[in-house]
Amino acid sequence: MPGIVVEGYSGLVIRKMIKLRAAIFASVILVGTQLGMEASKAIPASDAAPHTQLSPTVILGFAGVLQPDCVRQVEAGEYRCAKRWVEVTHLLKSLVYQDVESQLIPPLQHQLAIADQSWQHFQTQHCQQLTQRLRNTPDFPIATSVCLARLNNDRILELHRGGEVITLQSRNPRFESLLDRLKLRNSSVQRHWEQYQTQYCQIEKALFSLNTLRLAQCHQRLREARIRQLEELLKAPARGLALSSGSVLPGIPELKCVDKTQLGLNRCAVYWSKTTQLLQSSIYGDWAKRLSKQYQPTFTIAQKHWQDYREAHCIELVEPFKESSMAPMLYHRCLARLNNDRIADLKGIAVYDPEDDQQRTPVTSFQYTTQPLWERYQTEYCKFESQFFGSQGRSKQCPNRLNLGRLRHIKAMMNTR
């Protein structure tokens, strides 16, 4: 009987989930604690061997989360989309901060906290200034959110100790000129930034004590970022926020990581998974709030079916590699891609791959367990779209649009085998 078959495969999937979750959780603990360091270098100084030299760790180097596609939609939902950009960049910045903090001995953790407090004061005041300069422009409603998101991205890059310094200068004429033109030389916002620069670069000096140029390099790297911020502030009244107008796919693109060790790739995948989950939950939450009681039950059931499918699909994709160190990377990349596809579904967007065939791909044996979950999601979500949008083109296209997503998922699974 169908009910017996479903119960049997569900039990099998649940047992697999429990085992694989345990393996992934153990690996993610390594991601969050080791961060490529030897154990003796990750513990407080009082517990480490005497005279142990704290060696710098090579960590990620990407510039945060790109501007979401919805920010460039001037009409419906632009303000909320900009707020989502802040939320996602703030989450990523917090995750990176926690990972960096976990590498430091207690005195440097305290120094990092002081530097971060100065940076937060600077971020708030800088974005207030930028918003004021855009008061009479079309970008004014989203100015604060866009500014906060961009500065979050700058902070992410700084926490990664990224960027290359070509020349060292004790003074930069452009920097001095911008401060004078904007009348910021003795301002509160500039003082907060200078405090942040001083405090944060002292951490780098301690970590890279054998590199006599490191302190100067840190000061210059942060000053280069500040120059970009000042130039944006100066040009804001004339050019606005200069938002990107190119084609941007729904969701969050895969983060570009320079740490190619397996720990680094695992950590980067976790970041991507968590940020896409936050964005997907935010968009889903907005939908749920504006729906009348008539549509909420179908919408909620469809989301539950999608969550079941996502978990089962990613567990099944990782199953052959569950004992491997790459299991967390594969699992979280899978979650992130399916989160992005769910965002596309919620927006009614079909993300086409030129290699996709319009024909249904046969379901092979290793896809058998997740296919019923997928079909339940597709049925329930397209039922919701039919109820909500009526006979509009979006609801008619729903089955084929979702089929394209499933096709990509199957191809991704086959490519990992």
TrEMBL record:
Residue ranges of domain Lysozyme inhibitor LprI-like N-terminal in the record: 96-159, 260-346
Entries under InterPro entries matching the protein: LprI-like_N
Superkingdom classification of source: Bacteria
Descriptive protein name: DUF1311 domain-containing protein
Species of the source: Nostoc parmelioides FACHB-3921
Lineage, top ranks: Bacteria, Bacillati, Cyanobacteriota, Cyanophyceae, Nostocales
